[in-house]
Each structure stands twice: as C-alpha cells, then as structure tokens.
Design a protein that fits this description.
The structure is a single chain. Helices cover 20% and strands 32% of the residues. By secondary structure, it is an alpha+beta fold. It folds into 3 domains: 15-177 and 408-439, no CATH class; 182-316 and 450-455, Probable inorganic polyphosphate/atp-NAD kinase, domain 1 (Rossmann fold, 3-Layer(aba) Sandwich); 332-390 and 472-594, Tumour Suppressor Smad4, CATH 2.60.200.40. A hairpin with a 2-residue loop joins strand 2 and strand 3 (49-56). The radius of gyration is 27 Å and the shape is elongated. It binds adenosine-5'-triphosphate. Adenosine-5'-triphosphate is lined by residues 188-192, 220-223, 225, 245-249, 252, 278-281, 582-583.
Length: 608
C-alpha cells in the first residue's frame, strides 16, 4: 500500500490543531486495510472537510480534503461480474481496476456483496512553485459493518447526506438539502474557436453530474438569441443563468435582464454565471484572479465548481448611452487602438486569444490617431481599494485539472496498492470490512445530469416569443442626456488620442491585466488614456506590460490611468470603432456611469 503523500495542496493538520474548537466533527469511522494490519485509518467528516488520519505503530499522519474542494458524492453497489469470474468479495477488490460499482437501482447488482460504497469527488487545489491547478480525486469508503446491504447503505447515506448539508452550508439533517431548481445554460457554439459545445460536454457536464446539479442547456441559434431568451422567459424558474461562451453571450444575458420590466427583482433573485469559451474571457479571468482560483484556458473546473456551490458576489455594471441605444456593460468600453485590435482581429477567431497579439503587432506599424473630446468625473480618492495582486504565472501545460479526460492521471492519495481490502475487527472478530482508498481518475460516462434537459440547435418548436420591440429598463441615469452640457466639476480633454479604454474589471482579456486595483463591486471605472505623440517604444512597452498590469502605474504626458465614476467620449468624424464588452456599437458620442452592486455573479467558494 502506498503511503498517503503529503502534497502541498493538502492541509496537514497536526494533532494539536485537531483539537481546534472551531472544527466540529460530525461523523467518524475507523477503516482497516487487510494487508496492513498495523495501520488504522480514522476518517472524520468535519466542518473543515474530510480528514484522513493514518495511524501506524503509534505514528499518525493526517490529511484533510477541504470541504470547498469536494464537489459531491454518490452511493454505489458492486456490479455483477461476468459469468466465469469469481464471486468472492475479496477477490473482486483485488486491484482497484477491477472494482466495478453501479447505481443501487441498476439491474446489474452483485447481490453477494452487501457493502455500500460511498464515492466522494474532490478537485483539490495543488500549488507548485510556478503554477496552481486542480487535481481530481475520488475517495471511496466501503461500508460493510452489517450483514444486510440495506443497513450498510443507511450508514453510507448518512455520510452522504451530512456531506451534502456541509457543502450546501446548511444545518445537518437526515434529508439532503433540496435541489429543485435547474441552472439555465446558454451556450454560444460560435464563441472563440468554436469549441464551447465540446468543452461543455467534456469539462462541465461531468462535474455538474458529480455535484448533482441539474441544468437545462440551450444552444444559441443566432446572435441575440440569449438576450431574447432571457427577456421573454420566466427566469425565476432557474437557480441561475450561465453564459457559456465569450463575454459577448453574458453581455446579451445581462441586457436581456434589463429589458424586463421586473429587471430589479430578476437581477436580485437570479444570479448570473460565466464559463469562458470565447477569445477574450475578461470577466472569467477576473473572477478567478480575485478568488485565487486557477485560470487555465479551456479548463472550466474552478468556475463549474463555483456554479455547483452556488456562492455569488455583487458586481457593478455600467449604464452606457449612445445616440440611439442604452445598454448595460460589465467589462469595458473602448475607443481607438485596443478596440481596433479587438474588432479587426475577428477574422483570426480560429486561433483563439492569440488573435489579439498577432493583430496588435500589425496595428503598431500603422498607428491611427483619433480626434475628439474626452470628459470624465474623476474619483479623487481610491486609497481605500485593496492592494493589487500580481497574476500567477501559469504554465500552459495541460493541467491535471482536466483529469476527467485523463484516465491515467495519478490520484491524490493512493493507499491502495492493488490488493488491499480494508478490514476492521471488533473484539477480534471480523465484524466489519470497510475500505478507504482512492481510485485513479477515470473518464466519466455521464454527460448530463439526471433531470437535465438539452435543447439542441435542431430542436424545433421554440417556445420563444417572436422578437418584439424591446425597451431597456434599469436604474434611472444621473447623467444629463448625451447632447447636454456636463456638470462643471467634470474634466475635459480635447485632442488626438491613440486610444481611450475604459474598464471595470481587472482583466479585459485572459492575458490583459488592465486594472489591477479593480474589484467586482467598488463603484470605480478605470480609464486608460493614451494620447497622440506617444512613441512606438512606449506603446510597445505598454502592450508588453499588459500581462502584469504595469501600465496602470504609468502616469506621464502621454499615458495615464484615471479612476472615474462616469465618462463621455465624443469622437470627431465617422471612421473608427467603439466597443462595449468587446462588441462593436455605433460610432459617435457615448457616455457611461457606474451603478454598484446591480448584479449577482457566481464566484468560487474560497473560504476555508
Ligand atoms: N449561434 C450563434 N451564431 C452566431 N453568432 C452568435 C450565436 N450565438 C451568439 N452569437 C454572437 O456571437 C458573438 C460573440 O460571442 P462570444 O462573446 O461568445 O464569443 P467571442 O467574441 O469569441 O468571445 P469574447 O467576447 O470573449 O472575445 C456575440 O455577439 C453573440 O451575440
């Protein structure tokens, strides 16, 4: 049997710490291993998580799988072996490869094995010097104290229910917390390099299955589909609305909400979420960065776990006004260089996020200048904002986080060295044969949660109402109308600009740390102004420093970062791009003001 490894991701609690009064022990059981008679495993379910203490010859080692890393659990029974295979319970467990379990309702049960197996699924945060990732681990507890399966199952179910209550943060009862509402998933199959559907099936659906989170998946059929969907449906029927795609789909969802008469109640009661499959993915990267969740492109584990846990945080939105439209934005407004890169690199969509880098290099050669007037209401004191964090340098290797796809991946602890059946003796008699070991990650066969629905592009008979003229609601603006004079305390700058980029999230793309001091709900808009006259080398160092956010400290004649609560841009001429959350809007005067805490957004549960 392999000794449990002390991975740096696992909290190693000493015995003294164990008496910490804050840690409440809900369930405790002892497990034995046949081949290691001098080792005892004490497994406890505590307010911190699953504590696994191995005791050998008076020495003990403890590892705790934190509650926040556990996504779900399942009770199983042994699967019937094929004719010719031995029916001996012990030999059926020789080598974890051979352990086959099924649902208790399956018609393929091994009636000879009266054990109940509790599978506990966890995605453990693993730190190393240069990166941070999640590794999938399955802990299997075998309950076999009693002579009848029903009694063993009752025991396993007790652990499972307690675990579910703890995960849900609810009082411990005999019944699992209700799970009546589904998540609404709106997936854009065209986002980024077009892999959203595949990523959902391989990275998201199996986790939702393990977490027993039911969902209803709708694949968008065209642009504005998600917006109309949200505007016209009874959104209260869902536990939350999740955009799977780029920032553009969430922009549609958000604006669909503001097109509802009941926008305030809908936004308060129905949280939003994002699973990044686009090319920019600024909000998803921001959320992960703020909550210390690893963000690795196309790896959706952390944010899927966040959806399953149901923790939300308030988020600011910015009300934007152009000559003909009102919209609500959660990410950015751009004019000039960065917007040009964003829009013109669309043709390179197939290469994902790299399109921005390639186009940026091209655009530096033919630098454009834009004339206009920039006005803003400056926030004088931002000293109370938290200090910025530097982004983690992540290796771009494929992480174990993708272990669902990797049947060979190493499990976090492997106490099972192929032939261990865990046995307990009470008063010298073999009354109980419990097992505790972890099995290697394996590909999940489940692609949809029980009770989930899948609405494909080809499904006919959409119940969506035909588009009607939608009216934008939302909070009343404090700004004068776009063509009216601004208040006297506003600052005005007239001249030629290379760009004005305005954002209210830390990241505006996966690799672009735009506003290191920004928080999800701080009421601050960060405005980067780069004026004509800036040298190419200054611009180059700005773009190269974007990954680390170093430009945010720049404050010179040509480049400056200003915290504001509202802004107006009035471009001269008709040639150019204006973008809102990465989407092109009409070129002309535009203004915006921030409204704090209007939206609840799904965030990782990082509390210990
Ligand atoms: N089925 C569809 N076919 C075509 N376009 C769609 C469809 N569904 C949504 N869209 C539109 O695709 C646009 C881009 O979507 P999205 O933001 O998901 O991807 P992206 O632009 O690659 O990502 P990012 O915004 O992070 O750069 C949105 O404006 C959205 O309206």
């Amino acid at each position: 049997m392999a000794t449990p490894q002390h991975n740096s991701d696992v909290l190693v609690v000493s015995r003294n710490e164990h008496s910490d009064s804050k840690e409440h022990v809900y369930l405790e059981e002892t497990f034995y291993i046949l081949s290691k008679k001098n080792s005892v495993f004490r497994v406890r379910l505590t307010s911190k998580g699953l504590s696994l203490m191995k005791e050998t010859d008076g020495n003990s080692k403890e590892q705790t799988i934190l509650l926040r890393d556990i996504i779900g659990s399942k009770c199983m029974r042994s699967k019937r072996r094929h004719p010719g295979a031995t029916s001996c319970v012990c030999s059926s467990l020789v080598g974890h490869q051979q352990l086959k379990v099924v649902d208790e309702n399956s018609g393929d049960l091994d009636e000879n094995d009266i054990s109940a197996y509790l599978y506990i699924y966890a995605y453990i945060l693993k730190h190393s010097r240069r990166n941070l990732k999640r590794e999938r681990t399955t802990i299997t507890l075998r309950f076999r104290s009693f002579d009848k399966y029903e009694d063993n199952n009752k025991e396993a179910q007790k652990w499972r229910t307690t675990l579910k209550c703890l995960i849900a943060g609810q009082p411990i009862t005999n019944v699992p917390p209700p799970n009546d509402k589904k998540l609404l998933i709106l997936l854009n199959p065209k986002s980024g390099p077009g892999r959203a559907r595949e990523l959902f099936q391989t990275k998201v659906a199996p986790l939702l299955q393990e977490a027993e989170v039911p969902y209803e998946l709708h694949v968008t059929k065209h642009a504005q589909y998600a917006r109309e969907f949200v505007r016209t449906r009874n959104v209260y029927a869902w536990k939350g609305i999740v955009a799977v795609g780029g920032d553009g789909v969430l922009f549609e969802v958000l604006n669909g909400m503001f097109e509802r008469l009941d926008w305030q109640q809908a936004l308060m009661e129905v949280p939003l979420g994002i699973l990044p499959c686009g090319s920019g993915n600024g909000l998803a990267k921001t959320i992960c960065h703020l909550y210390n969740e690893p963000y690795i492109g196309e790896n959706l584990t952390g944010l899927t776990m966040a959806l399953a846990r149901g923790k939300v945080a308030p988020m600011d939105v910015v009300r934007i006004e152009t000559k003909t439209k009102i919209m609500f934005s959660f990410l950015s407004v751009g004019w000039g260089l960065l917007s040009d890169i964003d829009i013109e690199s669309e043709r390179l969509r197939a290469i994902g996020g790299h399109r921005f880098t390639v186009w940026a290099a091209a655009r530096l050669v033919g630098l454009r200048r834009y004339k206009g007037v920039l006005s803003y209401a400056k926030i004088k004191d931002v000293s109370n904002l938290p200090r910025p964090k530097l982004p983690l340098t992540l290796s771009h290797s494929i992480s174990q986080d993708g272990a669902l796809d990797s049947p060979d991946a190493e499990a976090f602890i492997d106490c099972d060295e192929h032939a261990d059946v865990f046995t307990s003796t009470v008063n010298g008699k073999h009354q109980r044969v419990d097992s505790w070991y972890s099995v290697n990650s394996r590909r999940s066969a489940f692609y949809s949660t029980r009770g989930s629905e899948y609405h494909s592009v080809t499904s006919g008979g959409s119940e969506m109402r035909s588009p009607v003229h939608a009216c934008m609601h939302g909070p009343a603006p404090h700004l004068p109308s776009l063509m009216s004079h601004l208040p006297s305390h506003w600052v005005h700058e007239q001249g030629e600009f290379i760009m004005v980029h305005i954002a209210y999230q830390q990241f505006i793309g996966e690799d672009f740390l735009f506003a290191p001091r920004s928080q999800l709900s701080d009421g601050v808009i960060w405005m980067l102004v780069i004026k004509a006259g800036v040298s190419r080398s200054q611009l180059l160092s700005f773009l190269l420093g974007a990954g680390q956010g170093t430009h945010a400290e720049m404050n010179n004649e040509y480049i400056k970062m200003i915290p504001v609560s509202a802004f107006r841009i009035v471009p001269e001429g008709t040639e150019g791009y204006l973008t809102v959350d990465g989407e092109c809007v009409e070129y002309g005067p535009i203004q915006g003001e921030i409204f704090p805490n209007l939206v609840n957004i799904s965030v990782p549960d990082t509390k210990i």
